[in-house]
Specification:
With 326 residues, this protein is an alpha/beta fold. It folds into 2 domains: 2-162 and 312-325, Glycogen Phosphorylase B (Rossmann fold), CATH 3.40.50; 181-310, Rossmann fold. Helix content is 37%, strand content 15%. It contains 14 helices and 12 strands. The protein has helices at residues 13-23, 49-54, 56-62, 80-86, 103-106, 121-131, 146-149, 189-192, 194-204, 220-227, 244-251, 282-291, 293-310, 313-325; strands at residues 2-7, 27-32, 44-46, 65-69, 90-95, 137-140, 155-158, 181-184, 211-214, 232-234, 256-258, 275-276. It has a 7-stranded parallel β-sheet with strand order 3-2-1-4-5-6-7, sandwiched between helices. Strand 4, helix 4 (80-86) and strand 5 (90-95) form a beta-alpha-beta unit. It is globular.
Length: 326
């Protein structure tokens, strides 16, 4: 089986999934036109829309399954989708959030959400309507994204974010450390709620001894090296679900502060170790972790166990193969 992933790399997922599929003996490769300072490279061919257009006939002929990401496909205006469908080959569209997060719908259950990164509602609707004419099944990372796309597809699969655990040796926060390090790594500060986080940090500095670092504008490999030294990691406190930073932090055995909407908590496994935090509670949640070093350690241990069980790339790849064969 030969699997095409493309054409926008989000949080390293095309490469991670391709790597896990290759370990099972399949041919899988990600083709990426979105090249950013994060610098994802493993199992990825960084290319351009023009190069994809010029090689589209070969790609459509060679691959058996087309796993598209982030409302994108090989040719402009989804012109490749009817061609692939005519060949009788399987297609899936993997939605990640900002590509489909309808502004008004996002605010129904979330007073904090930031949707400035999402296209206008009419553009989202137009793209989903076009895609779903040819692709009947979609994939999402969680139940926060699911309602935005469910009306358009015959079936929507929930597939957790994947992580290759090999580079993530646990480094649980030591309860004996006298000056803990708090880390926050926003790719987009407005989306992550950075202003609320740093307001709480400044207030806490009045009474507590700790270090704080905002990690930004580093490539992914450099950023991950910094996560290893943190004692507390704060991810996103507006969106209503957790992202790759939370998964990587848990893989290192760090306590993670992220906002998970109350109505979505039951959709995750019961042992979800995320310390649920929003702009109204961020000060108190950080304060609790600063005052309880043992709590930091125990949360980190639970997080590592959770990631091994639900987010390890080999575990996720098995679920993905079930989706492909369904």
């Amino acid at each position: 089986m030969k699997i095409f992933h493309g054409i926008i790399e989000i949080a390293g997922q095309m490469g991670i999934l391709s790597g896990a599929l290759k370990r099972r003996g399949y041919i899988s490769m990600g083709y990426n036109i979105f090249q950013s300072y994060l610098g994802y490279q493993e199992h990825i061919i960084n290319t351009t829309p023009l190069e994809l257009t010029n090689t589209s006939k070969q790609l459509l002929s060679f691959f058996d399954i087309f796993h598209f990401h982030y409302n994108s496909s090989i040719l402009q205006d989804f012109a490749d989708l009817p061609l692939i469908k005519a060949k009788g080959k399987k297609m899936f569209m993997h939605h990640w959030g900002n590509d489909v997060r309808f502004h008004d719908k996002a605010r129904i259950n979330n007073p904090y959400v930031y949707t400035g990164d999402s296209p206008p509602n009419e553009i989202i609707h137009e793209k989903l309507s076009t895609i779903s004419k040819y692709i009947s099944e979609a994939i999402v990372q969680d139940h926060e994204v699911l309602p935005y796309v469910a009306p358009y597809y015959e079936k929507v699969h929930v597939l957790p974010i994947a992580i290759d655990l090999a580079p993530f040796t646990p480094a649980f926060p030591s309860p004996a450390k006298p000056k803990p390090l708090i880390l926050h790594a926003p790719t987009n500060p407005e989306f992550k709620g950075t202003v609320h986080i740093e307001q709480a940090i400044e207030k806490l500095k009045e009474n507590y001894d700790f270090c704080y670092r905002r990690v930004q504008h580093l490539n992914h490999q450099q950023a991950v090296q910094l996560y290893r030294d943190a004692d507390i990691i704060i991810d996103q406190i507006l969106c209503g679900s957790y992202g790759l930073l939370s998964v990587e932090a848990m893989a290192f055995g760090k306590p993670v502060l992220t906002y998970v909407r109350d109505d979505l908590v039951p959709s995750f496994p019961a042992e979800l170790p995320i310390i649920n935090t929003n702009p109204d509670t961020i000060y108190e949640k950080i304060k609790e972790l600063l005052e309880n070093p043992e709590l930091r350690y125990k949360a980190g241990v639970r997080g590592r166990r959770y990631v091994e069980k639900y987010h390890a790339s080999d575990v996720v790849a098995e679920r993905l193969l079930s989706i492909y064969s369904s």
